[in-house]
From TrEMBL:
Classification lineage: Bacteria, Pseudomonadati, Pseudomonadota, Gammaproteobacteria, Aeromonadales
Gene Ontology MF, one: glycosyltransferase activity
Family: Belongs to the glycosyltransferase 2 family.
Family annotation (InterPro entries): Glyco_trans_2-like (IPR001173), Nucleotide-diphossugar_trans (IPR029044)
Name of the protein: Glycosyltransferase
Gene3D superfamilies the record matches: Spore Coat Polysaccharide Biosynthesis Protein SpsA, Chain A
Record's keyword terms, sorted: Glycosyltransferase, Transferase
Source organism of this protein record: Aeromonas simiae
């Protein structure tokens, strides 16, 4: 039987009703984690009262309020720091809208992988929702979307393969070995949201680790995965800024590193032609701020 020590990090913000489901699923795991760290990004919906009531019943649950909305990136960075206080062999990262199956952790541990393992995600209706990229192309200047293909494109429930190798992860269920953390450190909090998980995956692969998506370890997304965010909103700012940064930081050649400028100019021209000056401002600021991942505080959403 696997003797690994696993520490779970759950980042949450004003989703108490979903968090209830996530924590319940964690408490029902056939392989119980050593600690469950709840990182609360200063929720205002009663999350703190709820989790503290659980702490009194379950000694392995610990609660930390960040005091501010640090975003997913900042929340996981915070959680890594808390986890450093405990001995662990793996960190299991969990969003507050994910319900892992009861044997999810045990199934991933059975792979005995010194790298990163991602469970395969499904929608509430049972359809596959795993969009982790099999190939993330930062070599071709002509590819607007670097995600060539994803697990959803190739997944076959009848296939006997235990895993599919991937090049990116969401911070929704990945099991990360201690050796990865020791070599590449923590997630970058400056992303706030979007692409912090991809950045971590690229850093892990560049350090020589492989990433596997387990086809047997399953988890359910409790919300619809919305891949079309409004680029005129605060989310659009972070999506563009962080995507540009990924190209600068990891593009394999000068042409790929230059691609954000071309994309930004294309957006700006379109916005000017249709008179969308709000989108024009967001795109321009995202481009300027992408070099150093700065100005998160100007665009992050106001606390609820």
């Amino acid at each position: 039987m696997n003797k690994s020590d696993v520490v779970v990090i759950v980042v949450t913000y004003n989703r108490k009703e979903l968090l209830v489901v996530t924590i319940d699923a964690l408490l029902k795991q056939t392989f119980q984690p050593k600690k469950i760290i709840i990182v609360d990004n200063n929720s205002s919906d009663g999350t703190e009262v709820f989790v503290k009531s659980l702490v009194n019943k379950h000694s392995h649950i610990v609660y930390h309020n960040t005091g501010d909305n640090l975003g997913g990136a900042g929340g996981f960075h915070y959680g890594f720091n808390v986890a450093a206080k405990y001995h662990y062999d793996y960190l299991w990262l969990m969003d507050d809208d994910l319900e892992p199956s009861v044997d999810c952790l045990q199934t991933m541990l059975a792979l005995q992988h010194e790298g990163i393992i991602q469970p395969i995600r499904f929608n509430l209706d049972g359809s596959c929702a795993e969009l982790s990229p099999i190939k993330y192309d930062l070599d071709s200047v002509f590819r607007l979307n670097p995600k060539n293909s994803c697990v959803l494109d190739v997944y076959n429930p009848e296939c006997s393969d235990d895993y599919i190798e991937i090049e990116g992860i969401p911070f929704e269920g990945p099991l990360i070995s201690r050796s990865v953390v020791e070599k590449i450190g923590m997630p970058n909090p400056d992303f706030f949201i979007f692409y912090d998980d991809l950045d971590y995956a690229i850093r892990a692969r560049n350090a020589g680790f492989t990433i596997k998506c387990s086809t047997k370890a399953k988890a359910t997304r409790l919300l619809v995965n919305n891949q079309t965010n409004d680029l005129r909103s605060w989310k659009g700012y972070f999506m563009l800024r962080n995507l540009f940064y990924i190209h600068y930081q990891y593009g394999s050649n000068a042409f790929v590193k230059f691609k954000p400028f071309v994309i930004a100019c294309g957006y700006l021209l379109r916005c000017l032609l249709v008179g969308d000056f709000k989108q024009c401002k967001i795109t321009w600021n995202a481009f300027l701020d992408s070099f150093a991942l700065k100005n998160s505080s100007l665009y992050k959403p106001k606390s609820k």
